[in-house]
Each structure stands twice: as structure tokens, then as C-alpha cells.
Design a protein that fits this description.
mainly alpha
Length: 94
């Protein structure tokens, strides 16, 4: 073993040890999701996570606008469905 190769081996060992510590530190700071048998299991911190719940809304997003337009057309004496009649053409006119 020569003196010239010893510092490069120590340097390589130090670099490898540093990378190993960096990888271990990165894994310990994150909650890992695991896939076991087709199931996605949550991270260890799922009990402390704040859950956002968005309730289901109406299927037609413009229901208030459509109701206001229908009321306006009825107030103006027009058929809300656009049939052209003002009294007996469609189910909305009756």
C-alpha cells in the first residue's frame, strides 16, 4: 500500500459515508407512502394531517343564474324555455 493511494481511498470513503448519511437523513424527514400487495398505505403522519373536505356541489354549476334568468323571462312575459309562446306551448308556459 503506498502513501499516494491512502488519501484518495479515505476521500472516497468519506464521500460514500456522506452520501449515505444524506440519503438516510432525507428518508427520515419524509413520511413514506408504501405500496404493499396493491394497497397504498399512508405515511406514519396521516393522523396528524389536516383533512380538507369539499362537499359535493350541484351538477349544474349555474343553477342560481339559470333560475334568475327564468324568473326574469317569466316576469317579462316570455317563455323561459324559448318556445316563443306566452301561455300554452310548453310545460314551462303553463
Amino acid at each position: 500500500m503506498s502513501i499516494r493511494t491512502l488519501p484518495s481511498r479515505r476521500r472516497q470513503t468519506a464521500i460514500r459515508a456522506g452520501l449515505l448519511l444524506l440519503a438516510a437523513g432525507g428518508l427520515s424527514l419524509t413520511g413514506c407512502q408504501v405500496d404493499v400487495g396493491g394497497q397504498t398505505l399512508p405515511s406514519p403522519y396521516y393522523l396528524q394531517d389536516d383533512i380538507q373536505y369539499f362537499p359535493a356541489g350541484p351538477e349544474f354549476k349555474l343553477s342560481k343564474e339559470a333560475a334568475a334568468l327564468k324568473a326574469y323571462k317569466k316576469e317579462q312575459g316570455e317563455c323561459p324555455d324559448g318556445c316563443g309562446g306566452s301561455g300554452g306551448g310548453c310545460s314551462s308556459c303553463k
